[in-house]
């Protein structure tokens, strides 16, 4: 269930069709347009998330170009059974795309909301208002329109002398007069399902692109004396589609500025240079954090209060507690850092690396799928993989967990109050007992009991240690 849903007033059950079969030639890309990312997620995922908030009976996604990847992106957003996929083998136009859903929908007796996979920013409130206008006016079709400064590329909405809807004319088919019209079709509509499909049968590809235009349906309905309503939306940006990479970058910039502004004004986060910070709209950052330039915070990352994230660090899908310092140029992915830790500069945490309170991971240290206990320090030049490290332990410079034997990964366990000497190789699987010490350059191939000093290659027991580690 999406986090925030609405109840929308409809005459019949609501079904949503999302058109996402096109390649998007103006992107000049090998990747289908709806798979290009905005704010870290594919365009189609944005549309799906918004559609799901309406709690429709079903969401249908028309797929064609790179159908498998598009389906995967939809499933990632909505879950396995979140949408029904409708294949459109050849992309013969938006009308043909909707027609592909005929078998499943023609007799559904539903209110159909049509969305485009390339209009990612449309808000739930806008859709609710469109659907309710449609319901309350008892229309066969309601079109969301826009008044734009530059209507280039859009279908123009032609009204008659009484200001009543007559037809939509595509850019390429419009005459000189029609091209002057600045009210345009957003590509978002509501239809009565039975009327939609009966009118679609009459659509012909008799236009300059030889395509079946969905935009011919409203005028066909109008000729049949059905009611077609227009709902003009004031926010052009919100419902304009992305057709080029330049538009994609513009939207990215817009979302980012909005996100960072919200963090500054509402959450009390300091950005040293807001125009050079990159924060996902899904991320949360606590009060009194300081974010330096060129920091990236991606995915639904959570950062607590009073943290300082220095220049050039990237934090992806991670949780960070309070008062954590991340020094310059760290990469932190799918990891967790507790309160009062320090990381970096140049540290790499990944695959569920976990730092417990006051742990310190320093210069050029990589931590993979490992837990570093409270107050434990690994300050310099180490690889710690598949390791569980206790509290108040020190990991000397250059320590390596040799976790891979060429076939399998093995665990390393280092207990509390251990001192691992510089350049120690821990040949896993291996356990270092509490209070033990390894000498510089030791190659540890066997378990070390508690309170024991080992040294050499391979490491041998040198002596038992007392409580003070002497
Ligand atoms: C469409 C509208 C235009 C409107 C504009 C708003 C038509 C004929 N024109 O034009 O009036 O102003 O959107 O953005 O509908 N698609 C398919 N199968 C196809 C063709 C397209 O699934 O055979 C999908 C595309 O992947 C895309 C959406 O439909 O998600 C819109 O198609 P696009 O080619 O971008 O239409 P526009 O030319 O922008
Ligand atoms: Ca488009």
Characterise this structure.
The chain has two domains: 226 residues, Spore Coat Polysaccharide Biosynthesis Protein SpsA, Chain A; 220 residues, Hexapeptide repeat proteins (UDP N-Acetylglucosamine Acyltransferase, domain 1). It is elongated. The protein is an alpha/beta fold. It has ten helices and 40 strands. The chain starts with 13 loop residues before the first strand and ends in a 6-residue tail after the last strand. Bound molecules: uridine-diphosphate-N-acetylglucosamine and calcium ion (CA).
CATH overall fold name of the largest domain: Spore Coat Polysaccharide Biosynthesis Protein SpsA, Chain A
Note the main sheet.
17 strands, mixed
Percent helix range: 10-25%
Tell me the number of helical segments per DSSP (H or I, 4 or more residues long): 10
Beta-strand segment tally: 40
Unique bound compounds: uridine-diphosphate-N-acetylglucosamine, calcium ion
The radius of gyration computed from the alpha-carbon positions, rounded to a whole number of angstroms, is 30 Å
Distance between the termini: 59 Å
Shape descriptor reads: elongated
Overall tally of structural domains: 2
Outline the low-pLDDT stretches. Answer: none
How large is the share of residues in beta strands?
A: 25-35%
């Amino acid at each position: 269930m999406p986090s925030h849903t609405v109840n929308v007033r409809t005459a019949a059950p609501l079904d949503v069709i999302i058109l996402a079969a096109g390649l998007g030639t103006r992107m000049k890309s090998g990747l289908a347009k709806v798979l290009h990312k905005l704010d870290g997620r594919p365009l189609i995922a944005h549309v799906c998330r918004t559609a799901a908030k309406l709690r429709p009976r079903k969401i249908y996604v028309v797929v064609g170009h790179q159908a498998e990847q598009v389906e995967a992106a939809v499933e990632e957003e909505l879950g396995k059974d979140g949408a029904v996929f409708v294949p459109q083998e050849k992309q013969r136009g938006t009308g043909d795309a909707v027609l592909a859903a005929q078998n499943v929908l023609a007799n559904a007796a539903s209110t159909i909301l049509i969305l485009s996979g390339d209009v990612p920013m449309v808000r739930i409130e806008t859709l609710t208002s469109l659907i309710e206008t449609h319901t309350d006016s008892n229309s066969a079709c309601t079109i969301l329109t826009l008044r734009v400064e530059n209507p280039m590329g859009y279908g123009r909405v032609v009204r008659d002398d009484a200001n009543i809807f007559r037809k939509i004319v595509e850019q390429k088919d419009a005459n000189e007069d029609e091209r002057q019209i600045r009210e345009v079709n957003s590509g978002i509509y509501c239809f009565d399902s039975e009327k939609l499909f009966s009118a679609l049968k009459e659509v012909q590809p008799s236009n300059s692109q030889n395509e079946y235009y969905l935009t011919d349906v409203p005028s066909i309905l109008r000729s049949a004396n059905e009611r077609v309503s227009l709902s003009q939306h004031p926010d052009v940006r919100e419902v304009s589609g992305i057709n080029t990479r330049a538009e994609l970058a513009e939207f990215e910039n817009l979302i980012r500025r909005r996100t960072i502004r919200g963090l500054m004004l509402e959450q009390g986060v300091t950005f040293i240079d807001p125009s050079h910070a990159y924060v996902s709209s899904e991320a949360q950052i606590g009060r009194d954090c300081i974010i330096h330039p060129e920091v990236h915070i991606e995915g639904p990352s959570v950062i607590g209060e009073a943290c300082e994230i220095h220049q050039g660090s990237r934090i992806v899908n991670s949780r960070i507690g309070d008062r954590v310092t991340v020094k310059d140029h760290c990469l932190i992915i799918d990891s967790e850092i507790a309160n009062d830790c320090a990381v970096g500069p140049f540290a790499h945490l990944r695959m569920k690396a976990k730092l417990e309170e006051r742990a310190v991971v320093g210069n050029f240290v990589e931590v993979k799928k490992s837990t570093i206990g409270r107050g434990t320090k690994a300050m310099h030049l180490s690889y710690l993989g598949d390791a569980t490290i206790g509290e108040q332990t020190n990991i000397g410079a250059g320590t390596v967990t040799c976790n891979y034997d060429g076939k399998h990964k093995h665990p390393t366990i280092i207990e509390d109050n251990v001192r691992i000497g510089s350049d120690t190789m821990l040949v896993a699987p291996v356990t270092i007992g509490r209070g033990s010490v390894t000498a510089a350059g030791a190659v540890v191939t066997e378990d070390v009991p508690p309170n024991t000093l080992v040294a050499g290659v391979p490491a041998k027991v040198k002596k038992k240690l007392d409580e003070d580690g002497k």
